[in-house]
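Researcher: I'd like a candidate sequence for this fold, 145 residues long. If you have to choose between options at a position, lean toward the conservative one.
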């Protein structure tokens, strides 16, 4: 699967809290399916109750895997005016990396997503993702095949 199909960058997202983030994602993934939107939001909320999606003071990694997700995606959202609180914790979220994984996804797609999430441990890379334009974004995430 090509990176421009698997990954999608959203810049300048005007999102103020977790609920708005989940709504933003669900509306883009399931624009004509309110039931699927609700299921996705519920799944994000359930995951958050199991453990925080925070990966740094400035980034979150909400994720969901389900049979109603028909195509795996990694949505990267640059938050316009940072989210001040996440799960009751004072933060300044500037980046949300949302992983949507269809059930029984192919190994190579899971491997690509896993490689990308490991890259997020690099603080310098995270800093680049906060401000990257689309072309730069795809250069940053590009890996040797």
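Model: Candidate sequence:
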């Amino acid at each position: 699967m090509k990176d421009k199909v698997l990954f999608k960058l959203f810049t300048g997202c005007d999102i103020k809290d977790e609920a708005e983030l989940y709504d933003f994602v669900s509306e883009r993934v399931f624009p004509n399916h309110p039931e699927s939107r609700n299921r996705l939001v519920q799944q994000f909320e359930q995951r958050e109750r199991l453990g925080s999606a925070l990966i740094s003071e400035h980034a979150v990694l909400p994720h969901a895997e389900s049979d109603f997700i028909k195509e795996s995606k990694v949505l990267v959202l640059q938050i316009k005016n940072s989210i001040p609180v996440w799960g009751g914790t004072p933060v300044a979220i500037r980046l949300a990396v949302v992983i949507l994984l269809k059930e029984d996804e192919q190994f190579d797609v899971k491997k690509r997503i896993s490689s990308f999430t490991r890259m997020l441990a690099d603080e310098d890379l995270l800093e680049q993702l906060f401000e990257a334009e689309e072309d730069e974004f795809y250069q940053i995430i590009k890996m040797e095949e």
